[in-house]
Amino acid sequence: MTKLYIDSKQKEGFINPEIYGHFSEHLGRCIYQGIYVGESSEIPNTNGMRNDVVEALKEMKVPVLRWPGGCFADEYHWKDGIGPKSDRKRMVNANWGGVVEDNSFGTHEFFELCEQLGCKTYVNGNVGSGTVQEMNEWVEYMTFDGESPMAGLRKKNGREKPWRVDYFGVGNENWGCGGNMTPQYYANLYRRYQTFVRNYDNENPIFKVCCGANSSDYEWTEEVMKTCAYKAPDHLHCFMDGLSLHYYTLPNGDWQHKGSATDFDESQYYTTLHKTLFMEELVKKHSRIMSKYADEDKVSLIVDEWGCWYDVEPGTNPAFLYQQNTMRDAMVAAINFDIFNHHCKVVRMANIAQIVNVLASVILTEGSDMILTPTYYAFHMYRHHQGADLLHTNLTGNTDVGIKEEEQVPKITQTASVSSDGIINLTITNVSTDQPENVSVSMEGISNFEVIEARILTGKIDEYNIFEDRNVVSETDFNGYTANDGQLSIELPPCSIVLLRIEENK
Ligand code: AHR
Fold first, then answer.
1. Rounded to an integer, what distance in angstroms lies between the CA atom of residue 66 and that of residue 305?
2. Which protein residue has the closest C-alpha to ligand 1 atom 6?
3. Which of 14, 32, 96, 422 is the most interior residue, by most CB within 10 Å?
4. Going by CA atoms, what residue is nearest to atom 9 of ligand 1?
């Protein structure tokens, strides 16, 4: 039997809410149709944003949103997306299918969306094809409160007060679509560009994100850190607050034949989970290199693209990256969340790719219709960990499950945290395709408690929601537990995530 020990008094780090962050790119039907439909649309909207999508996202709790890309960011010229919409430039979205980008969603619309969602902002600047001046002026346009050409332009376009930019990315994937640069070349460009990302609001300085590695490219991390953070002679010169990391789970490990989102067998399921677990090695190895140059409280890891990447749904535009989302994706999300939570001292933010209609989305839309995916429910159940303190846990008796000898994965994964109001949040996942698991939980530091909320997400590994049947998989109440004399016993069905919220009786 699996035993979980939770020490309710031993806190092991703060789970930054942004670990549950999202990413929205001008790609396929993510921004256009998925989120933004324009004020004149028949789809109910507020200032152009779909009411149904915004409501669902608010309920799920979006802490931060990254925009405008992705690869799109390094071809985006922000001045094309401001001013009267009829005057905005129409351009080619060369990265994503060569479709026309009419720039009707730009800077003002992004901040409007974040205001509606009540989330922090993460703007990604253009290093690949943009100038230093362009980046400098964008920051001035967004954040300067005084009198200046860009602040004046912003006011002319209807926004008196500056916005708050919480995070700013200086380029994206500059080792690839963002300019095919070497780490040495990018690192020097980064130092130059970030100089002109000015902090006009000293009380809320912009958190600068330097472009980090593709998966296990440790040389990139080493070179970039070496150039952008060093001690000379006694003083730390550090030009960044965060270094990004992109890692996608590819079920077949092959970009040409990624595999179907919905049509897979048990063996492929476990392969997918096994590949997802590689995230932990990446977090450990990259952060170890980073710590040679700057302490973890100086530079954090920003996993600003993660999730499963499959073949597109048959019959859809290959450049739009539209894929379905099954219970397998919810398991992948739970595994990643638990890795990020357990490494919350180094991981400050993570952004699933992407929020609506692209890759591992939490929402899919078709015209005026919308469905929530299993990944949505995983985010929804884990939302209680946002801004909570990670608790010390010890799991014993956990077995490995899988088909292939070399691709076994731990059956149970979990996170326990305590919120500022003292409530303990436990999310516990059984990834087995067919075996239930009984977990006995003992709580150190609390003798008398009550479970105040219990929820479950469960289903067959390849189940998913469709527009004709939107509740095949959804979060429901859970009663498969007993709580007696300070002991908690949980019966986890196969392929399930359980949330228990526990309050001490005083
Ligand atoms: O999320 C899709 C793409 O994946 C992003 O645009 C890019 O940064 C990454 O390669």
1. 10
2. 70
3. 96
4. 70
- Give the Å distance between the CA of 70 and the centre of ligand 1: 5
Q: Considering the candidates 25, 140, 305, 437, report the single residue annotated as catalytic.
A: 305
Going from the Cα of 27 to the center of ligand 1, the distance in angstroms, rounded, reads: 9
Closest CA to 463 of 324, 334, 260: 324
Query: Would you give the DSSP letter of residue 160?
Result: -
Least confident of 112-116, 279-283, 293-297: 293-297
Distance 247 CA to ligand 1 centre (A): 10
The model's confidence at residue 252, banded by pLDDT at 50, 70 and 90, is confident
Task: Give the nearest ligand 1 atom to 71 CA.
Answer: 6
State which H helix or E strand residue 438 sits in.
Answer: strand 437-444
Does domain 17-387 bear CATH number 3.40.50.300? no
- What is the rounded average pLDDT of the residues 239-261? 94
Q: Is 109 a catalytic residue?
A: no
CATH number, domain 2-9+390-504: 2.60.40.1180
Residue spans of the domains in the chain: they are 2-9+390-504, 17-387
| pTM of this structure | 0.97
Active-site residue, 407 included: no
Per-residue pLDDT, averaged over 475-485, amounts to 94
Indicate the pLDDT class of residue 297, thresholds 50, 70 and 90: confident
